[in-house]
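Internal tracking record. Fields below are filled automatically when a chain is submitted to the structure queue. Please do not edit lines marked as system-generated. If the sequence contains nonstandard residues, flag them in the REMARKS field before resubmitting.
Queue: standard
Priority: normal
Entity type: single polypeptide chain
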Amino acid sequence: MRTVRDVHARTVHAPAAAVGALLDRLGAADDPLFPTPVWPPMRFDRPLGVGADGGHGFIRYRVTAYEPGRRIRFGFTGGEDGWHEIAVRPLGPDSCRVEHVLESRPRPARAVLWSLAFRAVHDTVVEEIFDNIERAATGRVTAPVRRSPRVRLFNRLLWDRPRAVELPAAARLAHRAFPRTDFQDAWQMDLLPGMPQEPEAWEGVLRGASFPVAGRTDTEILLGEDARHLDFRASVLVADGRVTLGTVVRLHRTTGRLYFAVVRRVHPFMARLMLRRFHRRLALAAPTAGERAAARG
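SYSTEM-GENERATED OUTPUT FOLLOWS
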């Protein structure tokens, strides 16, 4: 199998100790470096250290070497043969060099995917990590990376998808909307670090439609309107690190039942599509990890 080796490096005008301290927070709840929410966060099953298992998205790895403030090496798991490492090397009292090295021996099919897609995404993610290091350590980025059209396409294709859930009990406005409910469903996605937690930020989830606000609480906003054939409410609940788009419907007469018999076939697709698109839109607009770290001081 052919060996793939990929190297990135950047000079950062900040002390190595300051950059190393940022490196030690990789995978933590306040991770200032990994470029989420645009990409899935780096997560481990325990604090950063040798033996910690985790990864980001579908890329899985284990910490195999850790020198606090200096170097972290991750060995790929799940059948992959290889490793990647990020290290900080001092250049002087006020500057350092950050390096990321990946070396792997992918199977033939994986090697093709690496060439066609994964390499472009990998390169962008690494450079965005470097951007966040610069931003958190110095307050500015000299030459921020730009996502190519191909990377933006893969980001869109790989974006997480809503999952069907029961309408949460916490969606009290939705549960109390009608004395009788003829239909209800709910779709849910996890909130990524940096995404808005206020339900008002999610009011535009019903893409292209403007419905009056029927009620709101600190965690839920209820939209909808009444018509001769049916009444409907759309609930957006932001709680417990998740956003849930729920729908409740009350039908009137035969016309309402006939109309909704058609609509309910396309409703799940449209609900998933709107939630997924708006979730990604808010993630792309959210402050970067480096910006959040700089704001925290």
